[in-house]
Amino acid sequence: MTEEMTRYYARRAREYERVYTLPAWQMGIAEVRRRVLAAFAGRRVFEVACGTGYWTELIAGVATSIHATDVNDETLTLARGRPYPLGNATFAVHDAYMPASASPTWNAGFAGLWLSHVDATRMEQFVDAFHSHLVPGAIAIAFDERDDPTRTVRGMRMDDATGNRYEARRLENGEHYEIVKNFIDEPRLRRALARHARNLQYDDLGRFWIATWEAT
Questions:
Q1: 140 has pLDDT over 80
Q2: Is the separation of the CB atoms in 134 and 106 below 8 Å?
Q3: pLDDT recorded at residue 7
Q4: Is it true that domain 3-215 has CATH number 3.40.50.150?
Q5: CA atoms of 210 and 82, how far apart (whole Å)
Q6: I want to staple 155 with a disulfide (CB 3.0 to 4.6 A). Which of 110, 168, 179, 206 is the partner?
Q7: What residue segments make up the domains of the chain, in order of their start?
């Protein structure tokens, strides 16, 4: 993640979850929630880029344990502050592009609304790092936005040199940022996961896509 994006998500932490109230998101998010709960029941889950912990809290309600990571301590502070009555959630500041520092122990992995922010030139690095946390046979789920024509974008540009798509973002305090926002279609995801996934299922949920696979 670029320094600008890191600053953006740190500053945006308390605004972030408003996206989950968008009327256009409700049907898709409900289906993602259903699939996540079914897949992760009784699992030991590794979560990358957990943000403010929206999905962490949900998954903790059904998982044996969840280890949620993010590069920003500002967002992790909000994630840690959520209720975890089972006491099964742990947290760590961790760069998504960095591999695990110990042998993998997690039999499930989750990346929610994250892959669109992965630098196109570092996708292989991220995929390798993510799977370094997972034991063979682990169930993994990722979901993100699709390139929907009804989606409102204030400013966008493409960088042909890197293959990245960028969007302009403005916070409530008036600060402006430019962030990576790539749209990952099925062929692109299959190429990215080719060395690490089997039985990959990719589904179109309208405003979102969701993919499930087994780690090799």
A1: yes
A2: yes
A3: 59
A4: yes
A5: 25
A6: 168
A7: 3-215
